[in-house]
Design brief:
This protein is mostly helical. It is built from 13 helices and two strands. The chain has one domain. It has helices at 3-15, 22-54, 64-80, 83-87, 96-109, 112-124, 139-169, 176-196, 204-227, 236-257, 269-286, 290-298, 303-329; strands spanning 259-260, 263-264.
């Protein structure tokens, strides 16, 4: 079961007991949001870091694919873990730390919209800083297929690797509640810290991303909690946030790279950093591959194929309509930052 769908059980815990005072339920919700904030900030920084580290000239595979793989490995370990939760007699699906790690960290560490953007960039041959072109436009179809196949296959393999690893090396961690409380306090402190760090000019794309990432994480959490139960064979919540994040990412790429008669749409590096922060922090966090892969694994065929194909096809079509139409009519250029 995915971290986002597990939040349904959490809602039941917080609302079904009529004797629970409103103040207690409110406190628990704030605590959960603070935990999600902490892991959302850690997740977006990890994704940006590993993407930058693995993006270099002549790399075989690089960029967000490494973040998607790593997040799926961790997600596989978490959904397969049992000893700690059995030792403490806990239902892990309603534990704040578990939700923070799955929905907060793994969901943020991976990015569905970035995968769709990479597929379109390869299709249209518009990679930033590239001076080479395909022999003909037909090679773009092969490149798009290679992105989709490699991302999905490697992410699914990562999920199985994590599950197999924890089956052999599962362990007991008795200090779950202590760590949970420390992280809840750290979430608020971390958010305040990144707001203050906006003053550092060389790191603004990172700090902007860290500021908006928790908001996107909360949105994904509540949208999934609201919509996923409506269709058991089609996780509408995850589908909605993945498609919406892709649409917003396409628009932001038009703003960042779009040409005009007077040059580019953006005129300052600060504005470029802000747009990049929204791309990485909001769109990257709002969409998720780790939960998407878990849902593909959980659904039975042919429902999983229908869900997977619909998610990829609809998102890619929106990317083509928005970013592609601008590229083929006005043109794109390399960003300022």
């Amino acid at each position: 079961m995915s971290g986002d769908s597990d939040s349904i059980k959490l809602e039941q815990v917080l609302t079904e007991e009529s004797n629970s005072p409103l103040s207690l339920r409110l406190f628990l919700q704030i605590k959960l949001l603070s935990i999600l904030t902490f892991f959302a900030i850690i997740g977006v920084l990890a994704r940006k870091g590993i993407t930058n580290l693995t993006t270099y000239e002549n790399s075989f595979l690089g960029g967000v694919i490494w973040a998607n793989f790593a997040s799926c490995v961790i997600m596989g370990m978490l959904i397969q873990s049992e000893k700690t939760w059995d030792f403490l007699n806990l239902n892990k699906s309603t534990n704040f730390l578990y939700i923070g790690l799955t929905t907060g960290f793994c969901g943020t560490f991976s990015s569905f919209s970035s995968m769709i953007l990479e597929a379109f960039v390869k299709t249209a041959d518009i990679a930033i800083g590239s001076n080479t072109k395909y022999p003909n436009d037909g090679y773009g179809i092969m490149e798009c297929s290679s992105v989709m196949i490699s991302h999905l296959a490697i992410s699914i393999a990562g999920l199985h690797l994590g599950k197999h690893f924890i089956k052999r090396y599962d362990f007991v961690f008795p200090h779950v509640f202590i760590l949970e409380n420390v992280i809840a306090i750290g979430g608020g402190c971390a958010w305040i810290a990144v707001v203050g760090l906006v003053a550092l000019p060389n790191w603004r794309s990172w700090t902007f991303a860290s500021i908006v990432s928790p908001i996107a994480c909360w949105t994904r959490f509540y949208v999934s909690k609201l919509l996923n139960p409506k269709h058991k064979s089609f996780p509408m919540g995850t589908f909605t946030v993945n498609v919406f994040a892709t649409v917003v990412l396409a628009i932001l790429n038009v703003i960042e790279r779009g040409k005009t008669s007077k040059g580019g749409i953006l005129s300052t590096v600060l504005a470029c950093h802000f747009i990049q922060g929204l791309q990485d922090g909001y769109c990257g966090t709002l969409s998720t591959v780790s939960t998407f892969v878990v849902e593909l694994y959980t659904l039975k065929s042919p429902k999983s194929y229908r869900y997977g194909f619909s998610s990829l096809a609809v998102s890619y079509c929106f990317m083509v309509i928005i970013l592609g139409s601008y590229n083929w009519t006005k043109g794109l250029t390399d960003p300022l930052c």
